[in-house]
Structures are given as structure tokens and as C-alpha cells.
Amino acid sequence: MLFENQTFETILQRMLDRIPDDIDKREGSIIYDALAPAAIEFAQAYMELDTILRLAFSKTSSGEYLERIATNVGVYKKKATKSVRKGVFTDENNLPFNVPIGSQFRFNNTTYVAIEKITDGQFRIQAETPGSETNKEFGNLFPVEPIDGLGTAVLADVLIPGEDEEDDDSLRQRYFERISMPSSSGNNADYIRWAKEVPGIGYVRVFRRWDGPGTVRVVVITDKKKSPSPQMIEKVKENIEAKRPILADVTVDGAREVSIDIDVKVTLNGNGDVETALQQIKNSINDYLLNVAFFEQIVRYAKVGEAILNAEYVLDYENLKINGGTGNIQINGDEIAVLGRVTLL
């Protein structure tokens, strides 16, 4: 803090020092009591100045102030979006049942609205509450108003995941990217920015001339470093199509997930059971894979071994095999490695 030394005591003493010594300025004197309230206000003002300085610069700003800074260069916070789920409905004879469009259903504290028919008995239903929490709900739905003939209603597949509002760190990163990679008539920075404008998209790769002159391939993954849903890819396509140069032929794909299967024999340190150790190993390897996704095109054998050793209950390991071998796994630039099976020998 720049003004952390500007405390009430320091300010008051500085003010008292300006008063001649032949005047009573002890605590409780008229001069002291007159200056003390002003010193408190000055100290508060210095505290506010520290806050203003912190919020005025992109590196330390937050909340609505960071949003204001980002909008200066055309970067806007991605708002929370609503999930679209599959609703499966049957009548009293367990046959497919078509509910009216606009019908409302409840699951715990969430309301879902039927917005589109998929096929008989199956509908797209949209959560009224935005955010990712509704992606986790599965089970029986209950109509808000009675629907004649309805037997069962089930909340099923996630068709379009709901996304939480973008956090400050993500917005700040996109702001810095906008500053460090200026826009220029459909350059790589443009395609990266246009793709990341879609809620849920976190990382982008651009391949020029991938299928001849004028072709551009944009490969995306989510901010959780997973391959996005077809619906999310379609949103990226729509956003890019609305902004791309006229002559560009653009293809948008989600990164292909390459499964990484692990076989290993471990020696535990005696502090935990095998099941807990297995989960620790999975978490540790998964952390490593997430860290290198879209940044490295290789899964390193030694790094996987290091991740295994980082598991709390693991003392040592041997006979490690990754996808059946004992070497590094090379992946392409449009692929990401994801953890598959982990087997303890």
C-alpha cells in the first residue's frame, strides 16, 4: 500500500507539530480536540486513495472497475448463461408424451421451461437460473401447473452446459491478450478473441492455410480444458462468421481428446488405503495434464511419474506404462490429453 504509513496518529502528530509549542496541544486540549477529527478524515481519505490506485490499474483491479477498464479496448465480461437440458416425458401408460411448449417444471429450487420438441416425448428444456450448477442436476421433474395426461417427467442429458459469469482472472487475461496481440484484419489474435467471446471457451489455436490458401481452422477447448459440446462449437462458428474477413474460409472444431491410460505398481507409505491413494494419483496426473493442455504437444513419461510420486500416500512406484508403453506420448496440435484409466498393478 502506497499510503499505509499515513495513519491517524502520524497525521495528527504532523498537524500538532505545526502548532507553536507555547500553546497547549496535549490530548484533551482545545487544539488537540479540534485537529483530531480532521486527522481521522485525512487518514480515511488516504485509505480511499490506496483503494482507488488499486482499482485504477488492470493488474490489481477487480469487479466492475476491471470491467470498465476492459471495455476501453473492446473486451467485455462474459455473462452467465442458462443450461439447456433434455426432458423426457411419458404419459400414464408409460408412452412418450408431448408437453406444451412453455410448460414449466421444477427440480429442487430450479425452474425449467420446455422450449423445443426433439422427438415424441423428448424436449429441450431451459433452466431459468443461469450458471453451471444446473449442469449437475438429474432426476424427476415436477410440473409447476398440472398437465393432463402427464405420467412422468425426467431431467436427463445436458445439451448446452450453463456457464458461470466470467471471473476477474479470466477477464484480465483476455484484456492483456487484447493489448499484447492487437487486432489486424483477421489475424490470429482476432480469431482467438472472437472464439473466447463465447462463454465457456477458454483456449484457442489457429491453423492458417490448413486446407489451402484462404482457409483458417480454429480449434477450441473449454475453460476447464475439455473438448466443447457441439452446441458450444456452433456458437463459436456463428460469432466468427459474423466478424471474419469476407474472403476467409473458416472451420471451427473442438480439440480431439486423446485418452491417457496408466498402469503402475505403487508402494504406499502406510498412511492411507489403496482406494484413497488411487484417487490421489488420478487427481495428481489430471492436474499435470490440465497444466500442459494446449501448451505442450507431448505427455512426458517422467512428468507422469513425478505426478504419481506427488500423491500423498505414495512412497515409490515401478513398472509404469502410459498407453501400454514406457515413453513419451506425442499428441497433435489440435488434440488434448485427458486422463483415462488408471490401474494399480
TrEMBL record:
Organism annotation? Geobacillus icigianus
InterPro entries xref list: Baseplate_J-like_C, Baseplate_J_M, Phage_Baseplate_Assmbl_Protein
Assigned protein family: Belongs to the Mu gp47/PBSX XkdT family.
| A Pfam family recorded for this sequence | Baseplate_J_M
PANTHER family documented for this protein = PHAGE-LIKE ELEMENT PBSX PROTEIN XKDT, PROTEIN JAYE-RELATED
What this protein is called in its record is Baseplate J protein
Kindly indicate where the leader peptide sits in this chain.
Answer: none
Residue intervals of the Baseplate J-like central domain: 184-253
Q: Where is the Baseplate J-like C-terminal domain?
A: 260-344
